[in-house]
Amino acid sequence: MKFLDAPLPPPLAAALRACKPHFMAVAAFSAMINVLLLAPTIYMMQVYDRVVPTEGRLTLLYLTLIVAFALGTQTALESVRSRLLTLAGLRLDRLLAGGILQKLMSAMAPGSSSQGMREFDIIRQALSGPVATAAFDIPWTPIYVLVAFMIHPALGVLTVAGGVVLVTLAILNERATRSRNREAFIAQAQAYASQEAAAANAEVVRALGMRGALRERQLADRRTGLDLSAKAQFTGGGYAAATRFTRMFLQSAALGLGAWLAVEKQISAGAIIAASVLLSRALQPIEQVVGAWTVVGQARGALNNLIKLFPNKGLEVSGTQLPVPTGALALEQVSVRAPGEGPVLLRGVSLRLSPGEVLGVIGPSGAGKTTLARLAAGAITPDAGTVRLDGANLTDWDGDRLGRHIGYVPQDSALIAGSIKDNISRFAVWAGEGAGNGVAAIDAAVVVAAQAAGVHELILRLPSGYDTVLGAGGRGLSAGQAQRVALARALYGAPSLLVLDEPNSALDADGELALNQAILAAKSRSAAVMIVAHRTGILNIADRLLVLREGQVERIGPRAEVVAQMAAAAKNPPRPNGNPNPTSTSTAVALQAAKP
Q1: Are residues 407 and 279 in the same domain?
Q2: What is the residue-level pLDDT of the chain in tens, covering all 596 positions?
Q3: Residue 40 lies in a domain
């Protein structure tokens, strides 16, 4: 029975090893608890065999006090055991939550789930809940079996037979529900993701009248997940019912067998009740595990998904801190494929960008320009080829250290819920950079970046200035304002490489002028700049142009030379149907008009 699809990666294994003292203590407490749970059995035997025949009232009092003490101690131990499991869950959270969040925000975990934290919580709750308690009780079932054999071999055989039947039911339950539990888990995760995406785009959904349609779609996704989960629960519920019936019947059978043995004078009258209690206690943990098999299946699916976040190799980062890069960027035969074996977005792209140089990237929609920008900024990794900064592979850098030297403006600004200062500073205070006089230094750097982006005065006019709190996606600012704040974020810390993807798409004339000045200032301090643009006015400051088409480099060279080539190609385009390429024609005309 294979529980995991792959071995535990080192981070998960190390976290579980760190919790080993907790689990060992839980095992020790479980041993003492299970020994003390024999007290009621012994008490019954003594009451029926000694107190009742002799009418020993004082003996009954002493026996009652002893069993009360034993059960009180057992209750206290169970409380401590529960606390230990909870503490183990908290320790797992401290050890793994940060790493999981880091991986979820990384592009280096292909095929992993985007709901890693929810899956981690499922695992953590399974390891610290009733299922874990039952798992620690199961190894002590032989104690009850041994005591049953001590009372009479026939009772021991009945207990063993009952255990075999319940274990068989558990195995059959696992085999019958494994695939259904996995399918249900995947379907429910997809339904949650769809709901979160719709909620994040609530304004667009409302404006375009899609609420009813998306509600029905989400309900359909939810029904699919619930139907699969219900089928798994129906199957598991049948096995759980069979398990309960088996245990209850065996408990009654133990009473009957005990009575028959007592009639045959082979055991005492007190042993009749004791035999039933022993068998019930011996089989109870197995019944609990079978009854909670859905939780076990969910935890198994969550763990298998979580393992994908931690590939065993290919993500190791050198501990040697590389020097501050000058901004020399090189792409060597890089290729990128869309997720899920989708189409190739970039194919064999190579280019070099030198410090102090501005490279403009143009091409029709779907040519791969945004993918190229994301590659250059280190937002994604190529499926083939290498991206280098100052000769070092980007994967050789620690992601956060590398990010300090790169300024990136994505198409949608991608501002995060928080203050404007936090967004421009890339939440530096939360990274521990605000200790001592660090806050003042961060504030100064934020203002410098805002001034470089030409957005300082605009921010000061907001109700709370730099402390104005934005919603997710920059809610609270116009698209143009959000884009200018995103530019200030990219300029924070004077990075040596700037990658700007459609940085002027929402800007007015003043904003575009400020953008041009910011790019020229970055160029003057020898930063390398890559600009992806459809609005070609900004490209009049580019030193070179790169033309992408269908994921491949069509042209690259000095701006004037590429513009001339495109203008010539627009007059006599090599198209099968003889019609001119409207994209090339319009771009060439616009670039000619934008000549300085």
Answers
A1: no
A2: 456 666 787 888 888 889 889 999 999 999 899 888 888 888 888 888 788 888 888 888 988 999 999 999 999 999 999 999 999 989 988 888 887 877 777 644 444 445 778 888 888 888 888 888 888 888 888 888 888 888 888 888 888 888 888 878 877 877 777 777 777 777 777 777 677 667 766 766 677 677 777 778 778 877 887 787 787 777 777 877 887 788 788 878 888 888 888 888 888 777 787 777 878 888 888 777 776 777 777 788 788 878 877 765 444 445 667 788 888 999 999 999 887 677 888 999 999 999 999 999 998 888 889 899 988 988 888 888 999 998 888 877 776 778 888 999 988 888 888 889 988 988 888 776 555 557 888 889 999 999 999 899 999 998 889 999 888 777 788 888 888 999 999 999 899 999 999 888 888 888 888 889 999 999 999 999 999 987 777 788 889 999 998 889 988 989 888 888 887 777 766 555 545 455 454 555 455 545 54
A3: yes
CA distance 596 to 592: 9
Residues 278 and 362 both lie in one domain: no
- 327, 492 Cβ separation under 8 angstroms: no
Asked if 495 and 404 count as a contact pair (C-beta separation under 8 A), the reply is yes
Q: 174-189: b or e for each residue (b if 16 or more CB lie within 10 Å)?
A: bebbbebbbbbbebbb
Q: How far apart are CA 296 and CA 14, in angstroms?
A: 22
Residue 445 is part of which domain span?
351-569
- The DSSP bridge pattern shows strands 384-389 and 392-393 to be antiparallel
